[in-house]
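Consider a typical record:
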Amino acid sequence: MRTRFRARTGVRAVAAALLVAAATAQAATPAQAQSARPGMLTVADLPPDDLTWQGGASDQPGGSFDTRCLADWNRPSVPEENIWSADFLTSETASAYERVYVLPTEAEAIALADSARQYYAGCAGRQQAQYPGDVVTGQDHGTVDVEEGATVGGIHLKYVTTWSGHVDVLYGVGRDGNTVALVEWESNWTQPDVLAFKETVRAAVNRLY
């Protein structure tokens, strides 16, 4: 009797473990699918430059926010495993980056895109406050007709007090369903090609799915 009881107990334990494993696998599947890297920009999608672009998308989720216009952005909460990054640069002339956020719902993606647009819109003012003796101008470069839409803007920072150079920044915010792409280009050398950058933003949103 003891032997049978132990055998039955062992069978039950194995069955329970299998049920737990199956439930865990089912629960993990949506998260794994959600955190899979979306399609992202390549060097071929970036605005043309006299020097060669280098870099690309990371195979690991998570991203930094140390760009000029988003450095202190208090973005809506997004788990690090649902943020994907691509970083690019030339040897001297320009740099660019892309951040892609995969949200649980479309409503959350809309909120995040709106938050990014508002923060970008305040970039010129924040830069002017940081460099009060220099000249900062903001630009609204309009929209890009792609998926749920994208907007493009920029700033021009003319240094007067520190050195005689300048910095140009272009930024784009686009959305496809529950996924948001942010793209930024910066240079203190190359003049901004707005039309080319708009095509970069279009490519970023089109590549998401």
